[in-house]
Amino acid sequence: MIEMEVVYSRPESFTPTTTHYCPGCTHGTAHRLVAEVLDEMGIREKTIGVAPVGCSVFAYDYFNHDFVEAAHGRAPAMATGIKRVRPNNTVYTYQGDGDLASIGMAEIVHAAIRGENITVIFINNAIYGMTGGQMAPTTLPGMRTTSSPNGRDVEVMGYPVRMSEMLSTIDGTSYSVRRSLHNPANIRKSKKAIRRAFEVQERGMGFAMVELLSSCPTNLKFTPSEALNFIEEQMVPYYPLGDYKVAPEVKALKV
Amino acid sequence: MALKGTIEVDQMHCKGCSLCVEACPQNVIALDMEHLTPKGYHPAMLIAEGCTGCVICAVVCPDAAITVYREKRKKK
């Protein structure tokens, strides 16, 4: 009789609820990575998440720890308040590109400028998923969406914003990196980055953001695996993966 | 010899996105076209011997639907 052991099971930080995400949406992957990191660090009981508006608006139903829902784009502002009142709790925001890079641009930039001791998980899928696939600030030039049916014309609609690079220029930022969720190797790297971002907060080292390139099979009108190819072939060249700012003390962290 | 493993797919959570089917290095996962989950998707299932319990299917699964078991390593 061969003895079997469990090598992977659903993280404890997840509730048994099924998610409302479309099949193959990497929001689920990002949720799972956060849940795994919270489990590994053993900080689930003292963690407070802040949910955004967007596809991940119901994130509070899926995580088995305290969660609050912020007004559209205002998650960093809300997280700032929670962290200042309850400095011993771990506070993170989970935001999409429509939330963080569009309506919430002021909040995220100023949270970074103040060097707030919070962790931000930023999901960049280059489109507004929840409202039906409109053009987001991160939509690639020439990309067709429901509100740019002839492709994003940069002459009229401007250029996409690269958040990790932008926030890396701010002194208050300690950790600003971009990772992707398109294959197992990159998913593992993403998890390491999320772990580091939470460790930064645990040690009070300041503002940490992890940007994750994500897919939206439904609104990009791809199959789940084609959507991952889209990340690899189209998004990664425009949004290069890498560490944009790692403060020296964060670099010295052994995780 | 490679270690033996097996997977268990949670029918409530699997949405049949087939990311695990494509990621499986041993090509032993496929969608079960004979059955539907309570939500109406064709769930992923193990179709052949050869699973090594490498956890790659669970790493790519967006819905954390897969539990992976592996043969216990013998203590030296």
How would you characterize the overall build of this protein?
The complex is a heterodimer of chains A (255) and B (76). By secondary structure, chain A is of the alpha/beta class. Helix content of chain A is 38%, strand content 18%. In chain A, helix 1 crosses helix 8 (184-202) and helix 4 crosses helix 5. Chain B has a single domain (5-70), classed as 2-Layer Sandwich (Alpha-Beta Plaits), CATH 3.30.70. Chain B has a two-stranded antiparallel ribbon with strand order 1-4. Chain B has a two-stranded antiparallel ribbon with strand order 2-3. The chains are: A alpha/beta (255), B alpha+beta (76). The interface between A and B is medium-sized, with 34 and 33 residues. Strand 1 of chain A pairs antiparallel with strand 4 of chain B, so a sheet runs across the interface.
Key attributes of the depicted protein:
heterodimer, A: 255 residues, alpha/beta, Rossmann fold, globular, B: 76 residues, alpha+beta, Alpha-Beta Plaits, two-stranded antiparallel sheet
Quick summary:
The complex is a heterodimer of chains A (255) and B (76). Helices cover 38% and strands 18% of the residues of chain A.
Tally the helices of chain A: 11
Percentage of helical residues of chain B? 10-25%
Let me know the largest β-sheet of chain B: 2 strands, antiparallel
| Major beta sheet summary of chain A | 7 strands, mixed
Strand arrangement across the biggest beta sheet of chain A: 3-2-4-5-7-6-8
CATH class of chain A: Alpha Beta
Helix content of chain A: 25-40%
